[in-house]
Specification:
By secondary structure, this protein is an alpha/beta fold. Keywords: Hydrolase, Nucleotide-binding, Signal.
Length: about 550
């Protein structure tokens, strides 16, 4: 029987079953939608979870008094209507000290303390709000959606990461939200009708002004979602749909302003400003800031991780009898929010604290130590002692595939670059007397927030070479400077026609555009369901201390 290592099962903890139990009880790694093999090598001590509560916690029971938005005189057009948008917040509800993310609590504070913020203002989102931190992930988005309810959001475009926990979880979030989830071009393939969980538009009022808000997602983003989750749905080109709805909102509903929320960058979405009835667009997805112009109108994207917000301001012209966009940089822009934990919206913080009181018992659990920093990019490093997070994750998979739950002939591990979401840096953190920094469950969620399974797949050498070019990889590779397509692994040249067994995550294997794609999917190691965070947690506890300098790029 292979050696079993007791670990904190993150997939299990995310189900929020905080039932009391004895400290010697062992629970198998699982998730709310899957069960693991009876011979699981990834088992978990429930000591930590037993400390949280003597009874189970159900986030459906969390209730808050959400304030109503101030009413304006319905016979008067507000002089100004300013839209404020956030996108790609990825669960960053509270400030992140190490990465100096301000957190949703501060960004809302900054918005509501702007000179242009009035009762006539409108809060919206362009998607990817939930997936990315322990606080949001363990609550499956409830913490963030309740925070958005408290802040007064009026609509949100559905982003690709809203699908990460499955359609059922997405539907539950949409039901809990006091604002609509919008995706005009998300269709049920069987009926060719818009998905039940997605609205197409909503109408709100600010005084006498009538505002239409449409939502969409980039039609090319299907490949950014696990194929098993998106099965039965498709994203189609939205131009004609948006055009038809916008025209109806202006001509039939008599909307004074029509805004589009779309989860895509201006590279693919800027042309939507050519629709005459669209007055402005808030975008997202690429985690960049954008202030682009087309047809004299604005496309604004506000970065990511709560570090920015977007703003588009309209001023009522009595002479023209309509609202005109103020395109000055002070009024229509993206604005950076600088980390300052002394600033936060008190009402939103009440929501965050209620969830964090329960979840921090898990997220702050220490599972190991590290010496140095593990970074996504060189620019993230704040010290000279660092290694690469992607390499670290790949080495964790190699440990799992060759030692903890060994499978014959695994030669390398790969991880997509987009799946590594944060760096473990030392900023604002205090080391212990040995110069070591804690690694917590919360750290695992921030670096690897997605519920991806670790699997193996057999591929041609030519595909392995392409994967090396596209992805993070395990150690042992060496390039041939004289030939672009020559690659060595552990001293042996990769032969394009040979078959090699590699370990990676199911997202990579099921993505049709990926060099490691397999039509038949990947294979669980020895039949065991293993989630990437569980694998990394086991690796950290196996090492005790992670030496960051060991994870160079090869």
């Amino acid at each position: 029987m292979k050696n079993r290592i007791k670990i904190v099962s993150l997939a299990l903890l995310s189900t929020l079953l905080f039932a009391s139990c004895e400290t010697d009880t062992s629970l198998e790694s699982t998730s709310s939608t899957s069960s693991s093999s009876s011979s699981s090598s990834l088992t978990s001590s429930s000591t930590e979870s037993s400390q949280t509560s003597s009874s189970s916690v159900n986030f459906d029971d969390f209730e808050f008094d959400f304030p109503a938005w101030p009413e304006l005189d319905k016979d008067v057009y507000p002089q100004e209507i300013t839209f404020y948008s956030m996108n790609d917040t990825h669960g960053n509800l509270l400030p992140d000290e190490a990465n100096e993310y301000p957190g949703f609590v501060q960004t809302v504070y900054e918005i509501k303390h702007q000179a242009d913020f009035f009762a006539s203002s409108v809060l919206v989102s362009s998607g990817d709000m939930f997936q990315g931190t322990a606080l949001s992930n363990i609550s499956e988005g409830y913490a963030m959606v309740d925070a958005m309810n408290m802040a007064g959001f009026t609509g949100m475009a559905i982003g690709n990461h809203e699908f990460d926990w499955g359609i059922d979880a997405l539907e539950k979030l949409a039901e809990r939200a006091n604002f609509p989830f919008l995706g005009v071009n998300i269709l049920n393939q069987e009926t060719s009708q818009r998905a039940d969980f997605a609205g197409d538009y909503c109408i709100i009022n600010r005084g006498k002004a009538k505002i239409g808000i449409i939502g969409s997602i980039g039609s090319d983003l299907e490949s950014d979602i696990s194929a098993s989750v998106l099965k039965g749905y498709e994203f189609v080109n939205e131009y004609d749909m948006v055009s038809q709805i916008a025209k109806s909102l202006k001509s039939e509903e008599n909307c004074d302003i029509v805004i589009l929320l779309t989860h895509q960058s201006p590279d693919t979405g800027l042309s939507l400003l050519n629709i005459p009835e669209i007055d402005g667009i808030f975008g997202g997805h690429d985690h960049q800031t954008h202030n682009e112009t087309a047809s004299g109108k604005k496309f604004i994207s506000a970065g990511c991780n709560s570090s920015y917000y977007g703003q588009i301001k309209f001023v009522y012209s009595k002479e023209d009898g309509k609202y005109i966009c103020d395109t000055s940089l002070e009024s229509t822009r993206y604005q950076e929010v600088y980390y300052d934990p002394t600033k936060y919206d008190e009402n939103v913080m009440l929501v965050a604290n209620k969830y964090n009181e329960v979840i921090s018992v898990i997220s702050e659990t220490v599972i190991g130590k590290r010496r140095g920093e593990l970074v996504r990019y060189n620019s993230d490093a704040t010290s000279s002692l660092y290694g690469y997070a992607g390499t670290f994750l790949c080495e964790a998979m190699m440990y799992y595939a060759t030692e903890l739950n060994p499978v014959d002939n695994v030669v390398a591990a790969f991880h997509n670059t987009g799946g590594v979401r944060s760096s473990w840096v030392n900023t604002n953190l205090t080391p212990d007397e040995n110069g070591l920094y804690n690694i917590t469950i919360g750290d695992l969620y921030s670096m690897s927030p997605f519920d991806n399974m670790v699997q193996y797949v057999d591929v041609k050498g030519s595909d392995l070479i392409d994967a090396y070019k596209d992805h993070y990889n395990s150690l042992g590779f060496e390039e041939d400077p004289s030939s672009y397509n020559s690659l060595y692994l552990n001293g042996e040249k990769i032969v394009s026609s040979n078959i090699y067994r590699v370990v990676t995550i199911d997202f990579v294997i099921t993505r049709k555009s990926d060099p490691l794609y397999s039509e038949n999917g990947g294979t669980n190691l020895n039949g065991e369901l293993a989630y990437i965070r569980d694998v990394v947690s086991a690796y950290v506890q196996h090492l005790g201390t992670v030496e960051a300098a060991n994870y160079t790029r090869s």
